[in-house]
């Protein structure tokens, strides 16, 4: 029997379509929220922070403007480090629940430190306190999970940030139309490949690698394994892996590499050869053509941004099937809470 978390991952594209419709309906409101703002600051914790890492990178790439991304927990614990830094800031604050203690405390600190602030929040829970603190509350209740781990909600927060960058850039959503037209086929194939890979994994050392706009998604891919499968996993920037951590790539290890784009193929291939030479397993995600000596997970030709989102979905499926293999309940792993209020 499939668990609730499987439904939320496997058919997550259905909620993503609702998010696109919602964002387009509020396009002018969202665009106006960025007007007269000199600094854009992402603020989050947990999975929402890793989505923010992606959002900041995507927005910086598309707008050609420096974007800041900070952890809510750092603001709470080192308040004085974040005063007098920003000019007319727009704080973008994603939070599935809108109730996480660090996020609420950090938002209050920033509101007091910057009287000329504006708060744009992204939440899923009904009538949550973060929404009430916000000038621009984006509300996505269809993205909320019944299960504990952040899966569908992460992908929707990521998508909101991607869409905001596209709206500000004035881009058409042609790629997303193409994605939704083939989403069921793509997700079904990712699920099949995740199942086959997990069947081969025996007491694995797991590492995820990625770069650029995909880096936060790659981190989230490692985190979901820690949370859902309760399996300690690591993550690194793709080429940074060569500078020391590659010694951990031994026989029995599984290295999941999210390919950034074809321009980086030679660099990625060089790293892959080094890893394979050490007899570790490599899962290469996102290329259009197969690479020898690795497990190739091919997807249609999408942008780096959309491939990053799909990599996270793929790792969520890996985590789900691996948790079942370990005899765990993926809907409620251990004593993990959906959000932290204490």
Distance between the termini: 34 Å
List SSEs in N-to-C order.
HHHEHEHEHEHEHHEHEEHEEH
Unreliable sequence segments: none
Percentage beta strand: 5-15%
Which structural class best describes the helix and strand composition? alpha/beta
Brief characterization of the structure:
The protein is about 50% helix and about 15% strand. It has helices spanning about 5-10, 10-25, 25-35, 45-65, 70-75, 100-115, 130-135, 150-170, 175-200, 215-230, 265-275, 305-325, and strands at about 40-45, 70, 90-95, 120-125, 135-140, 205-210, 235, 255-260, 280-285, 295.
Describe this structure in words.
The protein is of the alpha/beta class and 342 residues long. Helix content is 48%, strand content 15%. It has twelve helices and ten strands. The strands form two sheets. It has a five-stranded parallel β-sheet, with helices on both faces. A five-stranded parallel β-sheet has the order 7-6-8-9-10, sandwiched between helices. The longest helix is centred in the middle third of the chain and has 27 residues, at 174-200. The protein is globular and about 55 Å long. The protein starts with a helix and ends in a 17-residue tail after the last helix.
């Amino acid at each position: 029997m499939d668990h609730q978390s499987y439904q939320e991952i496997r058919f997550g594209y259905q909620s993503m379509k609702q998010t696109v419709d919602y964002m387009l309906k509020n396009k002018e409101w969202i665009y106006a929220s960025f007007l007269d703002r000199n600094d854009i600051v992402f603020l989050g914790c947990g999975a929402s922070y890793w989505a923010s890492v992606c959002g900041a990178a995507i927005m910086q790439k598309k707008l050609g403007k420096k974007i800041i991304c900070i952890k809510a927990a750092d603001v709470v614990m080192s308040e004085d480090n974040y005063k007098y830094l920003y000019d007319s800031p727009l704080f973008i604050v994603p939070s599935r629940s809108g109730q996480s203690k660090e996020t609420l405390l950090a938002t209050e600190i920033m509101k007091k430190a910057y009287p000329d602030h504006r708060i744009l929040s992204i939440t899923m829970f009904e009538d949550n306190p973060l929404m009430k603190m916000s000038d621009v509350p984006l509300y996505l209740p269809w993205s909320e999970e019944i299960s504990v781990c952040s899966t569908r909600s992460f992908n929707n927060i990521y998508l909101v940030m991607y869409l905001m960058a596209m709206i500000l850039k004035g881009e058409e959503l042609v790629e997303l139309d193409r994605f939704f037209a083939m989403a069921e086929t793509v997700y079904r194939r990712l699920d099949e490949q995740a199942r086959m890979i997990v069947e081969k994994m025996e007491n694995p050392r797991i590492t995820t690698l990625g770069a650029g706009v995909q880096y936060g998604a790659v981190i989230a891919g490692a985190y979901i394994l820690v949370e859902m499968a309760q399996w300690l996993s690591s993550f690194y920037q793709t080429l940074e892996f060569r500078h020391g951590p590659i010694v951990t790539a031994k026989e029995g290890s599984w290295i999941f590499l999210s390919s950034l784009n074809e321009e980086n193929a030679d660099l990625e291939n060089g790293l892959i050869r080094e890893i394979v030479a050490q007899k570790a397993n490599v899962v290469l995600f996102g290329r259009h053509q197969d690479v020898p000596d690795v497990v190739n997970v091919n997807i249609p030709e999408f942008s780096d941004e959309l491939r990053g989102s799909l990599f996270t979905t793929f790792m969520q499926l890996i985590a789900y099937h691996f948790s079942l293999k370990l005899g765990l309940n993926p809907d409620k792993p251990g004593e993990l809470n959906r959000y932290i209020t204490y």
